[in-house]
Specification:
It contains 1 helix and 11 strands, in the order ββββαβββββββ. It has 135 residues and is mainly beta. It has 2 domains: 42 residues, no CATH class; 85 residues, Immunoglobulin-like (Sandwich).
Length: 135
Amino acid sequence: MEGEDATLTVTTAPFCIFEGWSDGEWQLPRVVTVTQDTLFAAMFKYDSAWAAGIGQAGDLDFGVSPNPTTGRLTIRMVQPGEYEMRIYDMNGKAVVSRKYGEAVTEVDMSALPAGQYLLAVRSKEKQGIRTIVKK
């Protein structure tokens, strides 16, 4: 109804990244006041590099603890090197993304809702996947 607020949300397909709305805004969720007929298109990008690596899952050896976690998650690499990690929710949306070069790194998941997540870590040559539970 005209004059009322509407909340806009999106649901991404696996390995798709929300890039914003067609009018240049990017907030999620987004609240708009209805003043006239308006079309809001959500813009997405398919993350093919990460999706392609899923077929090679398990090649990269690393440890994760504690799992389940209530907040901080520690990732321990078997070998030192340059790594990129992403945590995906079960809708395939990347909720955390980071590059690091240490053998041990911590990720703060305390702001994420309880549920199951996929942790993908990759180097230039290999990738590994772990399932993470956030309590």
